[in-house]
Amino acid sequence: MPALMMDEVRKVYGSGEQAVVALDGVSLEVGDDELLALVGPSGSGKTTLLSIAGGLLRPTDGAVQVGPHRIESYGPRELTRFRRTAVGFVFQGVNLVPFLTARENLLVAAEIAGVERRRARARAEQLLGELGLAGKEDRLPARLSGGERQRVAIGRALMNEPALVLFDEPTSSLDSRLGAQVMELIRAEVKGRGTAAVVVTHDLPMTRYADRVVEIHDGRLVT
Amino acid sequence: MSIALTEIRRSPLRFGLLTAAVGLLLALVLFLATVGGALLSRITGALERQSAPVLVFAVEARRNVQASLIAPGVAERVAAVPGVAAVAPWVTRGFTLRTGAGLRDGTLIGYEPGGPGAPTDIVEGRLPRMNGEAVLSALDAEAGFEVGSTVRVLPGGSPLEIVGLAEGASFAVQPTLFTPYEGFTAIARRAFPDAGPVLPSVLAVAPAPGEDPVALARRITEAVPGVEALDRQTAVASVPGTDAIRSSLGLLLGLAFVVVVVVIGFFFLIFAVQKADVFTLLLAMGTPARSLVGGLALQVVLVVGVGSLLATGLLAALATTGDRAFPISVDPGLALGTGATAVALSLLAALGAVRRIVRIDPAAAVRGGGGELA
Question: Which residue, of A34, B24, B43, B209, has the fewest CB within 10 Å?
């Protein structure tokens, strides 16, 4: 079973003459430990695709399956539950809770999912170590560098061991050296855990870390 | 919930300042309520803390003790009403008192020893046993005007020995002396020899065992022409001027509560706006909106709860340095009631912030905080 399967997905915002087609019959599969890069110009539908795969938006038409979840028919409550257990997010703009330390930012994902506290702490320590954040667990985001903050966000996305992790421009605020480090880290984590990942990026050099690159234009995939 | 608590821990200045502001406002509420209660007690205490559950007024006095005069023969007719166990005269008049501390305005009350109408809360000494003895309202005791001292009632100069102190027994915000009725009439005649006979202001009535004072008062009013009988609580509430004081105090207290509620409501609304990104992130991660609302409610309860404790502490500190005339004391029931009301109203005030949270679209997390979808 693929980690993500989208079949003829359409997303239309508004209606009548105001209608905007953001996705127009998108079909896509992402394998179990596949790292897929999604590229395309602004307004091409990348973010909408990511939002639908992550259960943040519902498609207008088509089927979306993430692991065992057929989410196109999920209601708001089911989508909320789906987001806290089945997917991990690394957002571009809004990323960490500013008043929580690095460790607490990871623990909050486990708390939301109802993971037992001791188990969650052990998992957070392990992830922070693997992400090179040992010794910085108790720092607030304001006292971390951009790369460190991004690593904490990656750790939080992986905290509940989701089948699919979605990255929205994970290197956009980093210089090319840090960006490459972060992409290497994402690849290592995804491959090491057998997790599927979709990375939306404008930064074409970063696509070399992906198993496959998919381009999107005007709401349609271009292979 | 733990996020809400962690946030408070990590933002001590922000939450500390808000808690302090709420504490000060609630301290003001408690202070006003306490001083208001003390003022009312200084006006009506002598009626409130006397032993007669029913008081009979002349109807034309319109429930004003100082304007009421009971005509001869009325006491016998009241005594004949079924359910009346005892009737005694109760009279009050203002005099000047010469005390060891100088001249004071004072209220003299005459009551029948052994009958209804005696002061109830003797905190020092005893009740008078003979004419020329009196019990003083405890708050007014001072050097030269205390148990064992003798005051002179002017005009006339009749002596009165203070033999006891009665808690909360003031009348008309003046030092108040309870003395036997017969002694009172002698003092009044000596002070104003050309005045007519001394008539009771009201009649103090003791109901028969098991008799409801309210029902008995109604029965007396119906049975005896020219009088209006009131149970003690109604008589106290009807003292002239107290209504206006209660209304003014109610207005001030209401205003203070409104300020508390507006401060809390605006704070958490601004807070929700400032934290929109964090709420969006948490919602996108799968946090149910009700958990975020619960966290906000917890913060409101903690801020107002700790503010209430702070207010009570401030009042307790004030109580140690309070004015003797209007002593401030911490009433746990009042503090608890004020705190609970403030919490309930503040939760209502936080509804604006709640509305903002539940309207957040988690998809905005991907739009970078409100941009158009790509």
Answer: B209
